[in-house]
């Protein structure tokens, strides 16, 4: 059975969504990142980057959520657009857009807004990452103004990819941010109402993950606080 290493974060949750949508049996293996379990030697053997999600599918190991989504979609033939070079190009482009832009900028916006030490003194960083996260979500919203889904006219892994991060827009940009992205909210609400999405979002409740962002959690999650580069 496929092993799925996960936490409560956005990237594992979107992989959980695919597994549930596709009906793939899996063993959910929790990795409590606020306890530092991602740095255990056993876990580093499957992902030297010390991050979740990871899947182990027989003798195949895949890490990075977008790589996992693409691997599973191609293996199962599910949640891909109709076969054409045009739609294949769109699929890859939007997957990488989320991987290189939406995810990183949203994550950094959450970090500087909520977790950075002396965040009140970091106005430049807060504004930069919030601006870039908002800009990326604006591009998604504009795309969805003219079509129901991100690629073609069917629900695909790109929509799952977007859902993983966009459902947490208020955390990254503030409670009122949704008013700026009505088309994106329409998609996220639709996906969130799907039975598979409800199961994926509740996966975190199967394990008593540490929720406190205390000194121990900061030490293992923000290692730059302990290891200066220069």
Automatic annotation (TrEMBL):
One of its GO terms (molecular function) is transferase activity. CDD domains: GST_N_Ure2p_like. It holds the Pfam family GST_C. Signal peptide: none annotated. Keywords: Transferase. InterPro entries: Glutathione-S-Trfase_C-like, Glutathione-S-Trfase_C_sf, Glutathione_S-Trfase, Glutathione_S-Trfase_N, GST_C, Thioredoxin-like_sf. Belongs to the GST superfamily. This is Glutathione S-transferase.
